[in-house]
Amino acid sequence: MTTLPVISLETIQASLTEAEILDAVKGALIAQSRGQVNSPPPGMLQLNDPSNNHRGECHIKYGHLNGSDTFVIKIASGFYDNPKVGLSANSGMMVVLSAKTGIPACVLDDKGWLTNARTAAAGALAAQAGAPSKITSLGIIGTGEQAELQAKWTSKLLGIESITVYGRTASHVVDYVERMKQAGLSVAVAADIPGLLKSCNLVITTTPSDSALIMAGDVQPGTHIVAMGTDNPGKQELDANLFPRAAVIMVDDHNQCVHHGDLGHAVRDGLVSDDVDIALGTVLAGEKPGRTSDDDITIVDLTGIAAEDMAVAGLVWSRQG
20 to 30 A Cα–Cα from 246, which one of 48, 171, 191, 280? Predict the structure, then answer.
C-alpha cells in the first residue's frame, strides 16, 4: 500500500501567490454562475456545548468542476474562543480525490489557511464588482482574521490607502489598528456602525453576528456592502429591510444565500422575491453590471462555495511533482 501524500501548510503557502488565488477564485465564481459545478448543499455542524463553554462550528463542502480529473472535500472549523488561548479561530483541511476512480490523491493540511485565503479573495472580488467610482473609505466591521485579510486584500486590489474599522471589543480594535498600520494602511476607528456608514461607501462585514448590524436607515445612497459573515442558519449581519433598497443584489450561490445567507432573511420576510439576485460570477465575467449609478446601494451576499475550495486545492495539487 502506498502512503497518502500529506501536503504541509508551508508547501501550500509556497505554491500560491495572491494573484493566482484571485484568478482561481474568480474563475470558480464564474464557473458557478454558468452551472459548471456539481456541488451539493454543504454540511454544517454546530458545536455550542454549554457544558464545556466552547463555541464552534464545522462546515463540510465538496464538489466537482465539470471536466476536472479531481474532486475536493473540505472540512473547515471555526472556534471563536480559540484566540483566548493563543490559537487561530479557524482550522481544517482539504482532501483531493480522483474523479475517475474515487481514490484519494492527497490531503492538504492547510489548517484553514486556504479557506481564509479563498474567502479573502472572494471578498475582494465582490468589493470590486460593485464598488462606486470614487471610494471615500473602506469600512470593515469586525476585528478577527477575516477582517484583517479583507482590509489587506481589498485595499491592494482596489488601490485603497485608508480604512475605517468598527469592533465591539476595545482591546481587539486597538490590536487590529496596530496590525493594519504595520501593513501600511491608514486606519480610523468608528465609535459605532452608523458613524462608519456615514464615512464609508464601501463596507465589508466579517462577523458571526446572530442579529442585524447594518440597519437599512443608516445606509447612504451609493454604498456598496459585502456581507460575508452569515454562512450558517441563525446568523445575520444585514437588516432585511435593506434589500428592497438595493439596486443590485449579487450572491455567490443563490440556493445557499436564500437558505442561510443574509438574503434569506429578506426573502422569508416577503420583502424581496427569491429571484431578485444575480450571480456574482456574471458580474465578474462582464455579463451583467454590478451597479448602474454611483447613487445605487448594492449588496453582495457571500456564503462561501465549494467551487472556490476546488479551485485553490486543484491549483496546489497540480504543482506537486
Answer: 191
| Structural domain span for residue 104 | 6-114+307-318
| pLDDT per residue as tens digits for the range 198-210 | 999 999 999 999 9
**Residue 148 · residue 88 · CB < 8 Å:** no
Residue 247 lies in a domain: yes
Residue 57 and residue 78: Cα distance in Å, rounded? 5
- Asked whether 126 and 302 are in contact (CB, 8 A), the reply is yes
Do 260 and 226 share a structural domain? yes
Query: Are 164 and 64 contained in the same domain?
Result: no
pLDDT in tens, 52-67: 667 788 989 999 999 9
> Are 101 and 161 contained in the same domain?
no
Q: Is residue 37 located within the same domain as residue 73?
A: yes
Helix and strand tally (H, E) in the chain?
10, 17
Q: Are residues 134 and 105 in the same domain?
A: no
Question: Domain total for the chain?
Answer: 2
> According to the model, what pLDDT value does residue 232 have?
84
The Cα 151–Cα 185 span in angstroms is: 9
Q: What is the mean pLDDT of the chain?
A: 94
What's the CA gap between 127 and 313, in Å, rounded?
23
Q: Mark whether 59 and 154 lie in a shared domain.
A: no
pTM: predicted TM-score of the whole model, two decimal places: 0.93
In this structure, the answer to whether residues 167 and 243 fall within a common structural domain is: yes
**pLDDT per residue over 271-285, tens digit each?**
999 999 999 999 999
CB 245 within 8 A of CB 220: no
Please tell me whether residues 75 and 198 are part of one structural domain. no
Taking 60 as the threshold, does the pLDDT of residue 111 lie above it? Answer: yes
* Distance in angstroms (rounded) separating the CA atoms of residues 95 and 107: 5
H/E/C letters for each residue in 220-267? CCCCEEEECCCCCCCCEEECHHHHHHCCEEEECCHHHHHHHCHHHHHH
CB 257 within 8 Å of CB 263: yes
Residue 298: give its domain's CATH number: 3.40.50.720
